[in-house]
Each structure stands twice: as structure tokens, then as C-alpha cells.
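tool_call: predict_structure(chain=1)
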Amino acid sequence: MADQPELNEILERLEAVEHKLGVYYVPNAEPILEELCEKLEPMTLQAILREVDAKVLAQAMMGYKTPALKNLQKAMSKKSWEMIQDDVHYFLKLGVSEAAIRTARLEMMSIIKKLEAHGAVVLHVKESSAELEDWKKQSQETGTLFKKVEGLEVWKKDILDRI
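tool_result:
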């Protein structure tokens, strides 16, 4: 009987499939996402956060610097912020893996990219970095890819539920 692959290996394989499809892979996702969280207007962040699962947000923001956290806090109600903080503390005690954090950040970036492609949000950032501008340009060129693989998230969830 072959050894079962561990969760991190499975997540890496799923990420590789997503990368090959060209849908969710975002080079330099972590600094870009942190910059977006830091510099976007609270109203734009609110529109994004409505689509993000609380668990994903809590994992994605682990290790963020104070300016990004303060801007996220402005975009959320006091109660929501406290719940997210509780989730972050729980994940810290649990010892969440770097792969899970990276996956959460990639998921948030894919949600942002999807919202922008559908015109639900406009990513206007003052004094943005070159990496963010490159990502925004790439995002505009590849925005239609989401329609080609709508079942990818369902497929991924199905695989993760089986382990």
C-alpha cells in the first residue's frame, strides 16, 4: 500500500494545477495582497471582504504589518474585527502551516481578481508599487479565464474533503 501524501503536498499539487491553468496563480501574491490591504479605500475593501470567508481572511492576514491591519480594521465592524482577531489567535495556537497561509492569500487574490474582472471593484491605489501595477495590467489581460474553469474550486474542495 502506497504512502498517503500529506496535506501540504496535496495543496502544493493543487496549486501546481491551478498554475498550469493560469487561473489563480499570482506571482508575488503576498506583498501585493498586503499592499492592497494597506492602500485600498475602506469601501473597496468592504466589497472584497464580503466575498472572503472569515477563515481565509484570518489565515491570509497572519504576519501582516500594522498599516495593512489598521486599514482592514477600518473596513470592518468592531464585532467582525474582534472575531477575525480571535480566529488569528486560534490559528497561531494551532500552528497553521505556511502552505495554508499561502493558499489563503492566493484565494483572496483570486477573489479580488474575479471581482475586478466582473467590474464589482475598481482597484485604485495611490502610489502603488511596480509589482502591483504589473499585476493589475496582467489581471486586465487575463480576466476572462475564470469563466473557463468555474468548477475548479468545487473539484479542489472535493479532493480536500476526501483526505
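agent: The chain has ten helices and no strands. Proceeding to next step.
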